[in-house]
Specification:
The complex is a heterodimer of chains A (99) and B (738).
Chain A lengths: L1 H6 L4 E8 L7 H17 L4 E6 L6 E6 L4 E5 L5 H12 L8
Helix pairs in contact in A: 2-3
Chain B lengths: L30 E6 L2 E6 L4 H7 L23 E4 L6 E2 L10 E3 L3 H16 L15 H9 L24 E3 L9 H10 L5 E3 L6 E3 L13 H5 L5 E3 L12 E6 L8 E7 L2 E7 L12 H5 L13 E4 L2 E4 L2 H15 L6 E5 L5 H13 L5 E3 L32 E5 L3 H4 L1 H14 L2 E5 L10 E4 L2 H9 L5 H8 L3 E6 L8 H14 L1 H4 L7 E4 L5 H7 L14 E5 L14 E6 L4 H4 L3 E4 L9 E3 L5 E3 L13 H11 L9 H11 L14 H12 L23 H5 L1 H11 L12 H5 L3
Parallel strand pairs in B: 1-5, 15-16, 15-22, 17-18, 17-20, 18-19, 20-21, 22-23, 23-24
Antiparallel strand pairs in B: 1-2, 3-4, 3-5, 6-9, 7-8, 10-11, 11-12, 13-14, 13-24, 25-26
The structure holds iron/sulfur cluster and FE2/S2 (inorganic) cluster.
């Protein structure tokens, strides 16, 4: 996961995860958080990485870039690896031209 | 008289003795079945008969019985007939028996009730017309329903007369009206921890009082006013203000601490007349503290009612348009860019306005979202990524199960009085043990003082020694560590959290499992958990920037030196307190009684407050002010109504809009959070002593500081300077009602 950790652009200010405490659809996201949290935080100490658990919610990742621009992606049922690549894609989306 | 004082202070288990052998889960009790008025009911064994009757739908009148207090059984109003029992029995003092046949509606029962009523009224003054309890008096209601229609008593000597007691600035007494139910005594002893409210004398001479002339110094004293079934104890600040039937009742949430007590705001017209507790077993049961109850008069004074713009050294009232334009110019002229634009979120900021402010500032390119607390300019020691790192994970309701509690740098009595009452309960009922590292305080339970500083905390975990508490701690089945919010406001915050998290992880099996989470942070500001949930915190880079434009949202506790004199300052809030003094523009917001907003309590529970009265003058709901400002600053936010705003809050964190429930972080992520804390690179814990964050319980925020009642309480209780009034003035006048 270190590749992902390093590839997060500096314009990303905040990543948020929604997931459910128990549902199988959130299992991949949870695994991803457990295994990559420390690595991502170590190389991006100023990045907010908000993990928000709520029963029954659809697992999702939100990214906030500079100037409050946000986008999100659903992570329902994905396994750990797919979560990582979905996130990678999300943070490196170049549609946000302001960076 | 018949009234018997059967009350015995119940302290079943003494400190440190035998408590550890108690089983930690309540044994499930078998059910029993009995018949009430021909109807079968099934209740758990050990239920009081009065509750079994209630369960069967039969109302039984009562005065002394209260389901949250010990049983006294001395008023005899709850008499019912039980088959094969020679006389009527007091249903509150009698356990329900399997197979018994109970009657609540027979001639015998009616006669018994009539008789009891007659005795009670024989000595009760006939002053209903001038009694504040009128309209919500149990004696009045029950004498209408169950009493006889005439009296046989014509006492030549007049009725019993009892001297009034002066219990301080909150509780007004009129002891002639007392029916000696001892509810107040049981509450004071068992819940509030004031062991010197008691009874003297017996029979007709039984009196309620403090034994000697002194005030009732408790932050929970207002509750005895609610408990008193008659008008013997009424409210001084509310005396002769209103009758209950004139009041509009609005259920809402208290914001003067982080407990989120459920309250009922009673208002008349545009004025809040009083605040009463609303029952919520998971939070405040049936109690509220005196600040929650009596700070409301502060809502009338020192209010900002119109936008103000500074001209030289005075404020000039302005229109909203002018004020917002001035802010736009202020922002441009200050030349502030990026993190030089700084927001400060105060204790009383609601979640909606925090969300709006964060979105607006992010749009302006700033990450400098700070909190109104010492070290609020740098990222909090707990971090905000994982919720379990900053919440009261154990849950308010569950703390009663803890068998050993370690308090670090906190005085729950003042930071969360409701939580403190639960501790007193577990101390009395289960013999829970308590240890404290920090500044001492007069506590309502026995407490072993283990140290003063972060260093002492570290030592306690590494070399606990052989003290009584240390021994209990090692074996506790449900240990609980509570770290006070003030600890994170010192430079030792991270070091303490590191020591604590290491200890918790090393003893995982006892601290963290599906049923128990023994790691809790106790917040004391109503807005704090919401700010953390939202990620309303600064980044390390932003904290080193010198701000040029500062937005104070309800911030009144900051250190004025953190505001550079060259910066442009906006204050948004409802009171002219500290924040407004430093502002260039003041925007009048609404107080918690005037808006319908979300509050997240220290457990992370989302609750919705409701509007009881309209905001005064030109003031507006806070999030709408920020929404309007975003328009003026040409950064319009994408929500126009509160529903769209709550959708946005869901996108930030679903927990913010899951009302009335608590989203508990999973054990795995809680462990991850602790691991993060335990691996923190921190400086050595210092020997600097922890300080209580609240010196004066009655004056902690702009509302209570503006309140006259709170000022009187502060004088009487915090400073101990109270001159009792001549309580029997007007005694001659009262005698004529006898
Ligand atoms: S003062 Fe009120 S609550 Fe206390 S014993 Fe008398 S009637 Fe009961
Ligand atoms: S309610 Fe049963 S004796 Fe008072």
């Amino acid at each position: 996961m270190t590749t992902l950790a390093r590839s997060i652009p500096r314009t990303v200010k905040e990543i948020r995860f929604h997931l459910c405490q128990t549902s199988p659809a959130s299992r991949g996201v949870r695994q991803f958080i457990l295994s990559s949290y420390s690595g991502i935080k170590a190389s991006n100490p100023d990045l907010k990485f908000l993990v928000r658990e709520a029963a029954g919610v659809e697992p999702k990742a939100f990214v906030r870039w500079e100037r409050g621009v946000e986008s999100s992606t659903g992570l329902s049922g994905l396994n750990e690896k797919d979560v990582a690549s979905a996130l990678n894609q999300l943070v490196n989306q170049q549609t946000v031209g302001k960076a | 008289m018949f009234a018997r004082s059967r009350f015995v202070a119940r302290r079943a288990i003494k400190f440190g003795s035998g408590s550890r052998t108690l089983s930690t889960t309540l044994p499930r009790r078998a059910d029993i079945t009995l018949t009430v008025d021909g109807k079968e009911v099934t209740v758990p064994q050990g239920t009081a008969l009065i509750q079994a009757c209630e369960a069967a739908g039969a109302t039984v009148p009562r005065f002394c019985y209260h389901d949250r207090l010990a049983i006294a059984g001395n008023c005899r109003m709850c008499l019912v007939e039980v088959e094969r029992s020679p006389k009527p029995v007091a249903s509150c003092a009698m356990p329900a028996m399997p197979g018994s046949k109970v009657f609540t509606n027979t001639p015998l029962v009616h006669k018994a009730r009539e008789g009891v009523m007659e005795f009670l009224l024989a000595n009760h003054p006939l002053d209903c017309a001038i009694c504040d309890q009128g309209g919500e008096c149990d004696l009045q209601d029950q004498s209408m329903r169950y009493g006889s229609d005439r009296t046989r008593f014509h006492e030549i000597t007049g009725k019993r007369a009892v001297e009034n007691k002066d219990l301080g600035p909150i509780v007004k007494t009129s002891m002639n009206r007392c029916i000696q139910c001892t509810r107040c005594v049981r509450f004071a002893n068992d819940v509030a921890g004031v062991e010197d409210l008691g009874t003297t004398g017996r029979g007709n001479d039984l009196q309620i009082g403090m034994y000697v002339e002194k005030v009732m110094d408790s932050e929970m004293s207002g509750n005895i006013i609610d408990l008193c079934p008659v008008g013997a104890l009424t409210s001084k600040p509310y005396a002769f203000q209103a009758r209950p039937w004139e009041l509009k009742k609005t259920e809402s949430i208290d914001v003067l601490d982080a407990v989120g007590s459920n309250i009922r705001i009673d208002s008349r017209g545009v004025q809040v007349m009083r605040i009463q507790p609303k029952i919520n077993d998971e939070v405040n049961e049936e109690w509220i503290n005196d600040k929650t109850r009596y700070a409301y008069d502060g809502l009338k004074y020192q209010r900002l009612t119109t936008p103000l713009v500074r001209e030289g050294d005075r404020f000039v009232p302005a229109t909203w348009e002018h004020a917002l334009e001035t802010i736009r110019h202020g922002l441009i002229n200050s030349g502030a860019k990026g993190d030089e634009i700084k927001a400060v979120a105060g204790h009383l900021a609601d979640t909606e306005s925090l969300t709006t402010l964060k979105d607006l500032f992010n749009k302006l390119g700033s990450e400098n979202l700070t909190l109104d607390q010492p070290f609020g300019d740098s990222p909090p020691a707990t971090g905000v990524d994982l919720r379990s790192n900053y919440l009261f994970n154990t849950g308010i309701e569950n703390i009663e199960e803890a068998d050993a509690v370690l308090l670090i740098g906190t005085n729950p009595r003042h930071e969360a009085a409701i939580i403190n009452t639960r501790f007193r309960k577990s101390f009395l009922r289960r013999g829970a043990n308590f240890g404290l590292i920090g500044e001492t305080f007069p506590s309502t339970f026995e407490l072993e003082h283990l140290g003063q500083s972060a260093k002492d905390a570290e030592t306690f975990f590494s070399k606990p020694g052989n003290g009584t508490f240390a021994k209990i701690w090692k074996e506790a089945k449900k240990p609980l560590i509570i770290v006070g919010s003030a600890v994170m406001e010192t430079k030792d915050g991270a070091a303490v959290l590191k020591a604590v998290s290491k200890h918790v992880l090393a003893n995982q099996a006892r601290f963290l499992n599906q049923e128990w989470n023994g790691f809790s942070i106790l917040q004391r500001a109503a807005s704090r958990a919401a700010a953390y949930d939202l990620g309303f915190t600064p980044s390390t880079t932003s904290s080193s920037v010198k701000p040029k434009f500062i937005y104070l949202l309800n911030a009144d506790e900051f250190d004025p030196t953190t505001i550079p004199s060259s910066s442009f300052v906006v204050y948004q809030g409802h009171h002219g307190d500290l924040g407004a003094q430093y502002a260039d523009v003041c925007l009048p917001g609404s107080a918690y009684t005037e808006k319908s907003t979300t509050w997240i309590n220290t457990e992370g529970r989302a609750q919705l407050g409701r509007t009881a009265v309209p905001p005064p003058g030109a003031s507006r709901e806070d999030w709408k002010i920020l929404r309007a400002l975003s328009e003026v600053l040409n950064q319009p936010l994408p929500y126009d109504d509160v529903l769209a705003l709550r959708d946005r809050m869901w996108d930030i964190s679903p927990t913010l809009v899951r009302y009335d429930s608590r989203e508990i972080p999973s054990v795995e992520l809680t462990k991850l959070g602790l691991q993060v804390l335990s691996e923190n690179k921190t400086s050595q814990a210092s020997g600097e002593k922890f300080k209580k964050p609240i010196e004066d319980f009655y004056r902690t925020d702009p509302i209570s500081r503006a309140s006259v009642t709170m000022a009187a309480c502060s004088k009487a209780f915090t400073k101990g300077d109270y001159v009792p009034a001549d309580v029997d003035e007007g005694a001659t006048a009262q005698a004529s009602y006898a």
